[in-house]
Amino acid sequence: MENKDYYKTLEIAKDADSAAVKKAFRKLAMQHHPDRNKGDKGSEKKFKEINEAYEVLKDDQKRAAYDKYGTANFQNTGGSHRHEGGFDDLSDVFGDIFGDFIGGGGRRSSRSEAQQKLRGSDLKYSTVISLEEAYEGLKRKIKFSALFSCSPCNSKGSKSNAGNKQCYSCRGSGKQRMQQGLFMIEKTCQTCAGMGTIISDPCSQCRGHGRFQKETNLVVDIPAGIDDEARIKLQGKGEAGIRGAQSGDLYISISIKEHEFYQRERSNLYCEIPIKMVTAILGGDVEIPTLDGKVAKISIPPKTQSGSKLRLKGKGMPVVRSAYHGDLYININVELPNKVSIKQKELLQEFDKLNQMGANPETDSFFAKVKNFVTSIRK
Questions:
Q1: pLDDT tens digits, one per residue of 6-51
Q2: Distances in Å between the alpha carbon of 84 and those of 59, 80, 305?
Q3: Which end of the chain is more exposed for a tag (fewer CB within 10 A), N or C?
Q4: Sign of CA dihedral 282, 285, 287, 292
């Protein structure tokens, strides 16, 4: 078997220390990695050679044997470029090449990823309120069941709070790595579920999860002026994370019931009120209920037409966390009597005879146009 010069392969001196060996390997592995040199057979061959050289020179016993006997000592293993203990080193190289693709190559990031995955779920809760409650604002008591932090074990999952041990499968990294050909496969450790630790004495209440199911009450502050279908976010009030991981959030969805009198558009309110014919002609006052539980008196000016709109400034909905209020718009609907007595009919006929010229300009204008139209057709 040909004697290979591993020092020459890694471009280092024979007295290079372990740090220099690793640095040289990382530099050359990044330079000749197949994914950086698609289709380049020379780089693929070089990558295998530097991998083989590093596997020998990084190990003190193998290096001593190589220095004394050369590569002949390794002929039974075919040069041994399989990574038996060098996964971390090659993972570091992959991390430099691919960034976050495989987790940045560090055990610390692996653990943080596991913590993120074990974060508690967000919860959703829906509640219905009245328009009056939306106007005033309120504190709504809600009741729901969810996973909460376990107090006896302080969310650690260990009965004695000292039962957390480093996982024997991943050695605390939360990841298991294996090599397939030239590529490194990294996956979440099945033994510890990516946490990096295992529990030898699980808590009897939460069974090692650091959380358990229970029912709770919570008071939610719903601000005045809140919109229909708005959501209130309560950070950290959702499901507890596993073994002390971050809790999820609680989202309160607000629905506002339809109101008997008012319709809402953002901060403005709209309503329609019927008035009698006499009130429309002579003017007068009408009363309507307001959302604050009071009664507002509305002045109807004389000669008010059906479809007229009145605006009451600042009488609409409050804007959330603001001193500003929207406006109230009132649509007037003049209601004609559906029952007329003989005496009323006589009085109305007399009223029509006494009606002054020009008192009904829209009616007069319309029928004048009709008359002109008919005349033009006849001609």
A1: 899 899 998 888 888 888 888 888 888 877 777 788 888 888 888 8
A2: 11, 9, 93
A3: C
A4: positive
